[in-house]
Amino acid sequence: MALRVLHTADWHIGQTLNGWSRAFEHEQFFKQLAELAREHEVDALVMAGDVFDNQNPSADSTRQFYEAIAALQDQTPHFTSVITAGNHDPAGRLEAPGVLMDRVGAHVVGTVHRTGEGLDLDQHLVPLRTADGTIHAHVLAIPFPRAADLPRVSEEGEPEGSVIVRAVRALYQDAVSQARARIGDDPLIVTGHLHVWGAEESEGAERRILVGGEHAIPHSVFDENVAYVALGHLHKPQRVGRDTIRYSGSPFPMSVTEQPYHHSVTLLEVENGGLTYRQIPLERPVAFHRLGRGEEGLSLDALPAVLDELALDDTVPLDQRPFVHVDLKPQVSGSGLRVEVDRLLENYPVRGAGISIVSPVTEGPEITEAAALVRLSDLEPEDLFKTAFASVHGEEPEAAHLELFHRAAAEIE
């Protein structure tokens, strides 16, 4: 009998997009997840971090999480859920109801737990069983590594990587070594919530998170004798380093950058000590349109005709209306491009997801490398702010914007 496991991550329950709730989309995703678990006779779920979108999830967000886990546990008495905290999650609060969660087969790991002998395997090593009670694999559940979770390593003598990278490597090597001492050569699934070198990130969607200011780690921190590494944090489904190190990706677009992604969950199958996997596509609960993409951007005058072509249904409830992000060409607007776009979108059954200004590609005189380089120290902070504001909004900041900028700058100083 084969063991089947669903790998998912980056739910971000409670997230909003341009002020719009995503609760309906999460509800539909969790229904899909339960249906997939039933259809494929899944035995376990591995959720690799970022259950919630912020450190203080609302009561509604927390309730939605518990309902989702309960629906999965209802599939079969032996079903096991393994959930780890990501950088967005309130780690302590996430695992606080652990005693109750354990009794229904849901194991939550928010922080790294240690004993005098190393990692507390009773907290981190979770057996996965098929319906007949046979253990076919274990999950080594490692959450997002906060500074307090990392072991101390020497700052000298090792040429590869910074102290932080070496500390993360030591954390995983010690954990796998301990797990192997307990379970032998049985298949081991390891979780991680971090950025691995070479993986593609979503601009504006994921924070660069590794502790100590470090951005990413090499895939070599994960021992080659583990069967699978279930990663979270990056929102695009992808492999990195080797076939068995994978990001499952987010369940639906969390930002406009993710609009073209094909979101999925990963189905693992363990049989006779070997592991195979395949991606299972997810249906997008709400349509997400990016208008003007791949062109020079739209003019405000052209936007209504493009919206009309979408043939939108005006009977759709507000929380199910499609998102629309507009790429605009630079143009003059009396009240501001964002305001003008919002006014236009109010006449359609859509939810505005923001705008981008498409910078025109121009051919100018050749600029030498020396002339093109400008030291940041030679620029005033206000000039940098004005340039960034104009790049995003297509117009200069107003006095009110500058006042807020100076107020924020003063607080930093």
Automatic annotation (TrEMBL):
Belongs to the SbcD family. It comes from Pseudovibrio exalbescens. This is Nuclease SbcCD subunit D. PANTHER family: COMPONENT OF ATP-DEPENDENT DSDNA EXONUCLEASE, NUCLEASE SBCCD SUBUNIT D. The gene is sbcD. Residues 3-237 form the Calcineurin-like phosphoesterase domain. The keyword Hydrolase applies. Heterodimer of SbcC and SbcD. Keywords: DNA recombination, DNA replication, Endonuclease, Exonuclease, Hydrolase, Nuclease. One of its GO terms (biological process) is DNA recombination. One of its GO terms (molecular function) is 3'-5' exonuclease activity. Residues 300-391 form the Nuclease SbcCD subunit D C-terminal domain. Pfam families: Metallophos, SbcD_C. It comes from the Bacteria. SbcCD cleaves DNA hairpin structures. These structures can inhibit DNA replication and are intermediates in certain DNA recombination reactions. The complex acts as a 3'->5' double strand exonuclease that can open hairpins. It also has a 5' single-strand endonuclease activity.
